[in-house]
Amino acid sequence: MSPTYQKSRFKKEVEVFLTAVMFYTRIPCPRWIGHSPDLLAKATRYFPMIGWIVGGVSAMVLYATGQLLPISISILFSMITGILLTGAFHEDGFADVCDGFGGGWTKSKILDIMKDSRVGAYGLIGMVLILPLKYLLLFEIYQAQGTLCLALALLSGHSLSRSTAASMIYTHEYVRENEDSKAKPVAKRMSINTLIMVVFSGLAPILLFGNPLLLCIVLPVYAMKAYLARYFKKWIGGYTGDCLGAVQQISEIIIYLSLLSLWKFI
Fold it and tell me: Does residue 265 have a pLDDT over 90?
């Protein structure tokens, strides 16, 4: 393999990674990064690594603000940081799913509601419930294990939850046929090699805890993913980009719950 080819291939991979950063976060990227649907599709393999970035920055904000403020306030700042970094991308998907499946009774009605940019009662209620729940779980993790484990929980929660959402692209079908969905460019069936990369990059931060038994959290996480996937398939025949956002948000909750539960026995 020639050095020129290797350099070209490396540059292409950097472009794919920066495309993922550009699409999944609000972090500024170089102007030469394009909006090619092909690049967006390939960028899915870096979805868990975006979780590394979001979780890592959130953890740093947690630590920095914790030097001056009570941990209860630091946790809130870390959550705000994660939301600002992603532009509430996944929270918006969760709210749309709450509205769509809460207010629609047919496939077409559910999909129409999820396309609506307005937030309805079900979406508002869902956000009012999930954000305080996430806050309380993070606070309980701190109470049980301290700041370091809380920082690692943030890193693991953001990466594994995105890995779980991305795995649905491999296992299930995308349902929208039009081009008006924000997930259309990335919601394509991925290869087995990409799936392996997605799974392992999502699981890797858990090993930083130093206890391999914590990998058992994949069982409730993927059980939840299987349930949601079956539910989505029953009602709309597959998933949409909003469904992936909902899976990411709910997976993050399950990860924190599982960590708290496992620490009682190991």
Answer: no
